[in-house]
Automatic annotation (TrEMBL):
Keywords: ATP-binding, DNA-binding, Nucleotide-binding, Transcription, Transcription regulation. It comes from the Bacteria. The keyword Transcription applies. InterPro entries: AAA+_ATPase (IPR003593), AAA_lid_NorR (IPR058031), P-loop_NTPase (IPR027417), PAS-assoc_C (IPR000700), PAS-like_dom_sf (IPR035965), Sigma_54_int (IPR002078), Sigma_54_int_dom_ATP-bd_1 (IPR025662), Sigma_54_int_dom_ATP-bd_2 (IPR025943). Residues 217-446 form the Sigma-54 factor interaction domain. Residues 145-197 form the PAC domain. It comes from Sporosarcina soli. This is Sigma-54 interaction domain-containing protein.
């Protein structure tokens, strides 16, 4: 077939103008052409002619390739999808070659880097890593390991990034591109650190709260919760604290926890009752004395309690009982942080936190000229008032349950108060406050033979404080300052079984708190073993919060002793499961 030379010349000229070359070589004897892969694209194919093998190579510029691709809808749509992703994704997407040269980045790069990533494009990611702009390069790690990596990366701007490096392989299995996806987790990292810090604090707090070597704090009232919040705030500082409250409200317990929760917890905690030591001995006890300072003094002298508390805390109970002459010396100790022993002239420097307590109204004592005004203001830096028990009756039930469990454990008993008996605790004024409550519960547990404690087992002073209404209707709860709560008509059958349950509730793993709520529920209207009452009614009945009621109910459900039946009209608490367990124990 003939060839039109004019058309062949035109074809050669056209290909040349398009910078396209066609090379035809014999496969067995000639080498394929070498091209610049950065500027040109090569496509080769083999064919036979006259019993010989030939290779045709088609070489054309990359620019022409892109121009052709843009005419295909598939390519256009893919570019549009990729651009939309890079412009709108929250994570930073960074595409580079194996040398770390940046090829493409997402728009989210700009707010993360002040220079909009200029150094990454000019210097490459490997050089940026060497200069400390980033802590570790995921791109470098992918290049070295030839696998996907995930690291936490720190930047010189203080950001924390979670970076995933992904290798893109060619047909030969070699890395051709590396894609790094970075997520800014600075806030998450900061929150995690705070959470870990709070966990450590909570663990320390729990260890302190449940330290069996010291008295526990049992609170349910808003007033005492506010007191504890104040204790938490001031524990780690060295401000002087003045704790006020009636005798027996727990001033020493609060002072104990201020010391235990503070940064002086491992240092001495010295306690002294200013009203229990004679005036002529109190000064020497507080400040010490030198050798031969007075008749009867120890030959080698004695260190005072302030010196003994150096580095720690000293608790001065009943500070209102301190004689006026000693008040002057105490003021100087507080102001100068130094003490002078009796018989000496050289002061001794000390570092002591001072906590004081009183059952007097010191402001009135100041007005009556019985307490120094300047000392009062020096002591009253952080005042804490602990209300008497009669003003926070929400704490009575938790305290009764706590002390009952404490003495049951101490004396190996299994005693429990009936719901009727607990109502008597609310009607008494408790002039001796928590100390009196604790002593009475100990006396009842030690002296009573029955495990089920009825109103008759109470001391006369508690029974005298209850009116006829409660003695004739034992399930009514009289609470000072609030309306009397009267239970609904009820079936007496549960109360015949209540004493049986009282003998076994500890064996069943029921806590005193759960036992208290069971007793309260049993006072309400029942259909066989299903009782109808709301959480709010139970909270009022037991003088505690609904949150505590839910906690007890959830615990009983978890122990498979209670089924809660809810409807839009009312809530029922079904104790058939619990009664079945009791019947099994009775057998």
């Amino acid at each position: 077939m003939g060839v039109d030379l004019n058309k062949q010349n035109l074809l050669e000229l056209a290909l040349k103008s398009l910078q396209i070359d066609v090379h035809i070589v014999e496969s067995s004897s000639e080498k394929e052409p070498v091209i610049d892969s950065d500027a040109f694209v090569m496509h080769a194919t083999s064919f036979k002619a006259a019993d010989k093998e030939y290779t045709a190579t088609f070489v054309f510029p990359k620019g022409a390739t892109l121009s052709l691709l843009k005419q295909f809808p598939e390519y256009t749509n893919m570019e549009l999808d990729l651009k939309t992703i890079l412009d709108n994704c929250r994570e930073v997407i960074f595409v580079s070659d194996t040398s770390g040269k940046a090829l493409r980045v997402s728009s989210s790069w700009k707010p993360l880097w002040e220079k909009e990533g200029k150094d990454f494009f000019d210097k490459g990611v490997f050089q940026v890593e060497k200069e400390g702009v980033i802590s570790r390069s995921a791109t470098r790690l992918v290049s070295e390991r030839k696998e996907l990596v995930q690291i936490v990366q720190q930047t010189n701007t203080g950001r924390t990034l979670m970076v995933t490096g992904i290798p893109i392989l060619n047909d030969a299995g070699e890395i051709q591109r590396i894609v790094s996806i970075s997520e800014d987790i600075t806030e998450i990292s900061s929150l995690q650190k705070e959470l870990n810090s709070e966990k450590v604090k909570n663990e320390q707090l729990n260890a302190r709260l449940y330290d069996e070597t010291s008295a526990s704090i049992v609170v349910n009232s808003e007033d005492m919760n506010n007191v504890l919040q104040k204790v938490f705030k001031i524990a780690d500082v060295d401000s002087t604290v003045l704790i006020a409250g009636e005798s027996g409200v727990g001033k020493e317990v609060i002072a104990n926890y201020i010391h235990k929760w503070g940064n002086r917890a491992n240092k001495p905690f010295i306690k002294i009752n200013c009203g229990s030591i004679p005036e002529n001995l109190l000064e020497s006890e507080l400040f010490g004395y030198s050798k031969g300072a007075f008749t009867g003094a120890l030959r080698e002298g004695k260190k005072g309690l302030f010196e003994a508390a150096n580095g720690g805390t000293i608790f001065l109970d009943e500070i209102g009982e301190m004689p006026p002459a000693l008040q002057v010396k105490l003021l100087r100790v507080l102001q100068e942080q130094e003490v002078t022993r009796i018989g000496e002239t050289s002061p001794i420097k000390i570092d002591v936190r001072v906590i004081t307590a009183t059952n007097r109204n010191l402001s009135e004592e100041v007005q009556q000229k019985r307490f120094r005004e300047d000392l009062y203001y020096r002591l009253n830096v952080v005042p804490i008032h602990i209300p008497p028990l009669r003003e926070r009756k929400e704490d009575i039930l938790p305290l009764v349950l706590h002390f009952t469990e404490e003495f049951n454990r101490k004396f190996l008993k299994t005693k429990v108060f009936s719901p009727e008996t607990i109502t008597y605790f609310y009607s008494y004024s408790w002039p001796g406050n928590i100390r009196e409550l604790r002593n009475i519960i100990e006396r009842i547990i030690v002296m009573t033979d029955s495990d089920y404690l009825e109103p008759d087992h109470l001391p006369d002073l508690l029974q005298r404080g209850v009116g006829e209404t409660i003695t004739t209707q034992p399930m009514e709860l009289a609470i000072a300052g609030s309306a009397t709560i009267t239970s609904k008509p009820r079936n007496v059958a549960p109360f015949e079984t209540l004493e049986v349950l009282a003998r076994h509730y500890r064996k069943l793993g029921i806590t005193h708190g759960e036992w208290g709520v069971i007793c309260a529920i049993f006072t309400y209207e029942a259909d066989e073993w299903t009782f109808h009452v709301s959480e709010e009614e139970l909270a009022t009945h037991l003088a505690c919060g609904t949150r505590q009621i839910r906690k007890w109910l959830y615990s009983l459900r978890k122990k498979e002793m209670l089924i809660v039946e809810r409807s839009w009209k009312k809530t029922g608490y079904n104790f058939n499961l619990l009664m079945e367990k009791v019947r099994c124990l009775e057998k």
